[in-house]
Amino acid sequence: MGILNVTPDSFSDGGCHAGLAAALEHARRMIAEGAEIIDIGGESTRPGAAEVSVEEEIARTRPVVAALRAEWDGLLSIDTMKAAVAAAALEAGADLVNDVSGLTADPAMAGVCAAGGCGVVVMHMQGDPRTMQLAPRYDDVVAEVRGFFEERLAALVAAGIDPEAICFDPGIGFGKSVEHNLALLRALPELAVGGRPLLLGVSRKSFIGKVLGSLDLADRAWPTVAITARAREAGVMIHRVHDVKPNVEALKMVEAILMGVG
Ligand code: 9MG
Question: Ligand 1 mean position to 174 CA, how many Å?
């Protein structure tokens, strides 16, 4: 899953994909490098990021979804917590909704996803993006994230979402300390609630810099690849990344080791 931020304040692309042409160019590059899903987001979820209106988020994302749909048959994901943004993207041709609130932020989201028959990424987050990193606290982070997935699976199926459409994501960096993130990465197979696939997003995240003792964003690219490889061996099927080529190459090598090349 290649990340396509269409936000002027995106922390890792400096906003350079904010224009439609630049966004499409970046998406095409990620597709050429092997991305099978493009995740399009119009509101930054980094800690402390400014909130964006529904209208603005739709104006940023819908044209990108529609333009990519017209030229590519792969999977398009809309990264949003807002039901109206998800509905607009699904109408423009998106295939799945990536909601970092696990479909808890907007009471209309589950209904939109059920009606749209789309895939759903249920991510765990403690708190909300503005405050989540202030004082994350858990008695047992793995048990609490797992419990959240169990509760969400039951609620979303009751709301009419096909369980086969759901995948889970532990939400690395979303209301978690470095130790919480590492504990979750250690316990990935335990998080596949209901046998559903896992998605993981570690790309360029700050916990990598903290482990390495580096403030340089460029230092986070190769450790991201290392985590991707390790997570694939632990069963993670979808990897949300900025740098598609090296992560796809790592996945191909790990899969060759796990399954052979025949
Ligand atoms: C939008 N976004 C930022 N980080 C993410 C992560 O780790 N997972 C998912 N599903 N979305 C994310």
Answer: 8
